[in-house]
Amino acid sequence: MMAQFLEIKQGYPDALLFYRMGDFYELFFDDAVAASEALDIALTKRGKHLGEDIPMCGVPVHSAENYLLTLIRKGFRVAVGEQMESPEEAKKRGAKSVVKRDVVRLVTPGTLTEESLLDARRHNFLAAFTVVRDEGALAWVDISTGAFHVMPLPPVRLGPELARLAPSELLMPDDQERDYAETVSDFGISLTPLSRGSFDSTGAQDRLCRLFKVSSLDAFGTFTRAEVAAMGAIVDYLDITQKGKLPLLRKPQREAADRSMQIDAATRRNLELTHSLAGGRAGSLLHAIDRTVTPGGARLLERRLSSPSRDLSTIQSRLAAVDFMVEQRQISTDLRDALRRVPDIDRALSRLAIDRAGPRDLAAIRNGLTQAEQIAETLENADLPDLLADSAGHLTGHDDLLSLLDASLVAEPPLLARDGGFIAQGYDTDLDEARKLRDEGRGVIAQMQTQYAEQTGISSIKIKHNNVLGYFIEVTATHADKMLSEPLNEVFKHRQTTANQLRFTTPELSEMETRILNAGGRALDIEKRLYDALKTQILDRASDLTDTARALSELDLATSLADLSIAENWAKPRVTDSKVLNITAGRHPVVEQSLRKDGAPFIANDTDLSGDPSSIWLLTGPNMAGKSTFLRQTALIVLLAQMGSHVPAQAAEIGVVSQLFSRVGASDDLARGRSTFMVEMVETAAILNQADDRALVILDEIGRGTATYDGLSIAWATLEHLHEVNRSRALFATHYHEMTALAGKLSGVENATVSVREHDGDVIFLHEVIRGAADRSYGVQVARLAGLPDAVVARAREVLDALEKGDREGGAQPKAVIDDLPLFQFSVKAPPERTDAIPTQYRRVADLLEEVNPDDLSPRDALEMLYKLKEASRES
């Protein structure tokens, strides 16, 4: 047995081998050591190899999926080795023959299909990237849904696209792996190198043609050699990992980079589109807006959010769908009720295609088609916009298949086909008979006994059973002559005579005995045959079913965005082919929801970046006043509009944005030896080198990570470059008040500030963005609010006053001013003792307040009490 394990393991050196032994998957040698640590299970031993104990651990077959998921998440790949024959079959070759085993599947992060291993609301992409003669291409597939896409991709765009798609696994030629390993590692993607042969474009074209049963790929579009190579590598890898059982893949769709808004990885991270900065889904924009009720609708929402469109007609058709659902609230409500009962048709289809499905996947198709028909009836007489009308057209046309599934399946099938019991009573005569024999064998025998009694005229005739003869007919010796004479002896064959009885059989009874004994197995065999027939019927209609699933997802997304718009008081944006960006009373969707939970209002603000050829707001104001929130909300409103959603604003007019750049917040990258300032400069350089005149750029505190004059110089030059060279629409937040002078020098720059109010040395944030420049940053006041010791705050005021005085009186250098300051010339006072005692001078006022119940006061009484309090305060 160990020889067989080692032989199989030799073919999968980079994977853990799950070696099937009865009801367990066992692991041996180094695989066992690694798995026991990763899974926190006991490590034992079994026999010896080369004089050393063989480490061993195992997991039960029935719960293997949970262990697989843990291993995959920890970066392992697993080869699943199954028994290819029963122990009884093995013994036929010899008593000591080992059961044949072979790997039936290689489990990797990008090839998961099991429901328990996947997040139903997210795609699980397997991607492939290659460069052929300086032309790059990226292909990606979700084998759990069949989605298959490809696009030309210059190597410099690999990072942003990986950030958009977030694939679980990336395939790459082994001779190119080193060039892009660092880029891939940034996103936590499992990188799998393949031989150059897997990416050979000629072989790849042949593989693709065989897969889609076409003679040429021209019917799918025109692809570059690199695109064909990337797609072919995916198909080759799936053939390897699925051991020839290729999943049901849709025809490849070619994506064009200029059809969607370009968003780089830093911007996605800063804006927290699909994940918060903490790493989870909670706190992200996706979490705030997701009201979808189907898995397919949730996946579509994430795709749209990750890749907003730049095509005006596409955006407007999506907005029209949401508008319809907002206006037709009853239809939208009815649809959402029906959609809640729609299962995941795409993933059920995929599991059926690769023989990893069960009866519940058949039921999922049936239930999905049932709901699709109900939804079609709801939309039947509605005047639908084009996108919804197209979706409604794909909901019907499955009458024959639905009737077949309705007639053949029980309401609630079991999980596994081997359990049986999923085919409905009355669907198949042979199955009904086998079940009757299995479940009602005694009744069938009793009926035969009655029949024989009538046939022979012997009322005492019995049918009995023992382990030697099986079923037999028994009569007493008094009826021997009758049973042994013609014509009965031609039907009833004598088998045994005892002292008082004679025993007979008939061909009919012998056949019935065999059928009863085999009824259980036969019933299961019939159900499996019917399962395969139903699966074939479904897969023959896979293309139409995929269109239905896509239509249901589109309807789910439209109704969910309408529900969001109504509940959150959002507005339809006006999206145009101009450079206008005008938002009235815009709000941050995530922050607003968070504040609402605390009972606090969100202060809405306007944005107007509609200048030509450039429009830049230079935003000043103190920390904590809401500058970053304002910057981010503008970007998110633009993104939501181009995704095809209503927006959190009173009104919005948005000229299509080609690129979205956001450099907000700061963090270092110690793994690469980059300081916070270096990361900031790298991200800023990427913006200045890539942004075009249709881009929206969000910049916050450029240059703050270095010396004051260095930082000011960099920020100044960056703003000039955006205005003169990039000519982008931009929001530029800064604490360098000197830069406000640029508003008078550059025609497209306008000053704006977040207003505050100062009272008794404290700063009150109004969170209102107004035109104009801030007079100062209020940093010392904010530090006081943060809880810095009073002594530190006082010293900071002293230094600040000296610096400002020196600047006013002659522009003295900060160093000279600080040199003239006495060092630490202040006393550190102990904090005052806390006491709950009321000072004597306020005792009279306190006594009066103790007597008052505000709820019982009339307006006149309240006024009189106010006079009493004033008089009491004078007396004190």
TrEMBL record:
GO terms for molecular function: ATP binding; ATP-dependent DNA damage sensor activity; damaged DNA binding; mismatched DNA binding. It comes from the Bacteria. Residues 695-711 form the DNA mismatch repair proteins mutS family domain. It holds the Pfam family MutS_I. The keyword Nucleotide-binding applies. GO terms for cellular component: cytosol. InterPro entries: DNA_mismatch_repair_MutS, DNA_mismatch_repair_MutS-lik_N, DNA_mismatch_repair_MutS/MSH, DNA_mismatch_repair_MutS_C, DNA_mismatch_repair_MutS_clamp, DNA_mismatch_repair_MutS_core, DNA_mismatch_repair_MutS_N, DNA_mismatch_repair_MutS_sf. Keywords: ATP-binding, DNA damage, DNA repair, DNA-binding, Nucleotide-binding. ATP binds at residues 621-628. GO terms for biological process: mismatch repair. This protein is involved in the repair of mismatches in DNA. It is possible that it carries out the mismatch recognition step. This protein has a weak ATPase activity. Belongs to the DNA mismatch repair MutS family. This is DNA mismatch repair protein MutS. The lineage of its organism: Bacteria, Pseudomonadati, Pseudomonadota, Alphaproteobacteria, Rhodobacterales.
